[in-house]
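Here's what a typical entry looks like (Peptidase M20 domain-containing protein 2):
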Amino acid sequence: MESLKEKVVLQVDEIKNDIFEVADEIHRNPELGNQEFKASKLLREKIANYGFTVKDVEGLPTAFIATKKGTKPGPTIALLAEYDALPQIGHACGHNLIAAASFGAAAALGKLGNDLVGEVMLVGSPAEETDGAKVLLVEKGIFRDVDAAMMVHPGNKTTAYSTSLAMEAIEFTYTGKAAHAAAAPHMGINALDAVIMLFNGINALRQQLKSDVRIHGIITEGGKAPNIIPDRAVARFYVRAKEKGYMLKVKEKVIACAKGAELATGAKLSYKNFELPFDNLITNKTMADMFKHNLKELGVSDISDEEEGIGSTDMGNVSQVVPAIHPHIAIAERNVAPHSIEFCQAAGSSRGKEAALLSAKAMAMLAVELAVKPELLQKAKQEFTKATSPSL
């Protein structure tokens, strides 16, 4: 097995120009979620050059599934590529590097030829920052026959173990009645007052919630002019918590606050999800341990302990149906925050590209281990079953 791991690492080095090109091209051409046509086309063409069969995903024009089977039977290992950018500040979450690393690992495994065991799958996953295409990919059964899944996310520190918060995205709309705000305020129903009461209600709710809960929102519509009673007001909120079950309980409390504002003001309430819900991430420790060991073999010594995630990712949904990991590799100093201009610059730097190369190597090594050592894969699956089984 060690010789095969060494071989796949050499394969990554041999194709590093392609890996760097993917990182650079996607970084130079940032595209928002579900609009990543250039990035998707680039990745499809690049991976096809390594003998992969590329297929579309119905209903998701910028998603794709690329597969290559080995000559020997074995597990199916999925490598997930993200490539959407953030509004205005581009690849400030480093998704260009995620795409490059997963592409690199898949291509290197594909180059093993007769030594390839099982099947390699590169999954093009759009819109992680917004609507989370992995949620739909899970629902479409893309991971039904997958044995393990992985991706690596850029960060400001390196860690093999990470978690994320379950999340729901809720839009509240209040409909009131317009009237002259000075001459006839008594004839109006103020929808904006209802939104403000909603914010105040949620603020009062916070002290009764667990410390891992995050509720944050914005007002997207709040009236047209100061002298007109607003007849329509809209607010959008993210509701997050460490565990999905508790997050859903918090969601109902937030909705109760919204209904209270409706009752108090008379403005009619409606609400809906404006993005798909994300499950919390379950990191498979068996796989994460092997990934960490591979990083050490590759010369990485500065590896942090488990990171308690306070963000959310649609990789959480994948981790609920298949053993999965979502480690982080440092591309910036610890005082550089993701979703910042500085992090965007790091994602386009030589350090960022070297991190993508390192990530590709560590993932390819892990894929080899899972394929040729059935007992490791079995251990990962047993852990997954225990972690996802309902508590008695």
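The chain has two domains: 2-164+281-388, 166-278.

More examples are in the samples folder.
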